[in-house]
Model the fold of this input.
Amino acid sequence: MSALEIGQVVAHKTYPLSRDSLVRYAGASGDFNPIHYRDDVAASVGLPGVLAHGMLTMGTAVQPVVEWLDGSGDDAGVIGWVSDYQVRFTRPVVVHPADGAELSVTATVAALDDEAGTARVDLTVTVDEKTVLGKAQVVVTLA
Amino acid sequence: MNPDLQGRVLPPAPAYLVGREKVREFARATGSTSALSLDPAAARAAGHADVVAPPTFPVVVQEATLAQLLAEPDAGIDFSRVVHGEQRFRYSRPVVAGDELTATLTVTSVKALGGNSMVTASSDMVDQTGAHVVTAVSTLVVRGDDA
Done:
């Protein structure tokens, strides 16, 4: 824990989201709302296009932190685990049928609690340089 | 929306058995490359009984409790007007394959906000021994007629 510093960027990664990603997530999660795969349905309810599931965005955005924690990046060993994770869905992610969308995630240490043995890591999650998740906070219980 | 919903506790949803292949399918669908979620041997080497579910996996278990809430006859929640506002998962320990989770939903808050209403529902999940594993909290915004 002493190795962590507030302001330290612990992970940064980009994830391409395609229509295939949405169909795959629909199957994995059981969320088959057609606004996540049908352009005609999305248009009929006034959306600018087919949207990524908010929970797909949330689930993907935490993965750079998970990779960092379990040491799969550099054999550093397990650093800790995600014991609390919250987000606000502030901007929908439109996924173009051909070009998809690209999710960019930066994870930064925001607070340390030595007594509890935890660190709070804040996520900056953007698409086309616009923030799509608000108050995206991960509490890590350190090993 | 019916303000009397606040404080209501729904009956527990049927138990959900967390399967290894479901965890791996969910992990791949959310861009995971974590050996702890994908490789049972790596998970066991790290001290887990089986593969570790990604942090947002409990949404799969929570879903049945939200369906219960929307189906409450006096709830007055029109599903076609529901937007997911916020989501949170608070863990006592990681979820691993083999866990049998029973989720119970409590309506923790109902608020009116402009022409919209907001409901916050907290689904507590316990394992076979009755020990708390994770609580999934959703805030749903129900758009009003003009929104």
Chain A touches chain B through 34 residues (CB under 8 Å). The domain at 9-17+53-142 of chain A is CATH 3.10.129.10 (Thiol Ester Dehydrase; Chain A). The CA atoms of residues 66 and 81 of chain A lie 7 Å apart. Strands of chain A lie at 9-17, 80-89, 101-113, 118-127, 130-131, 133-142.
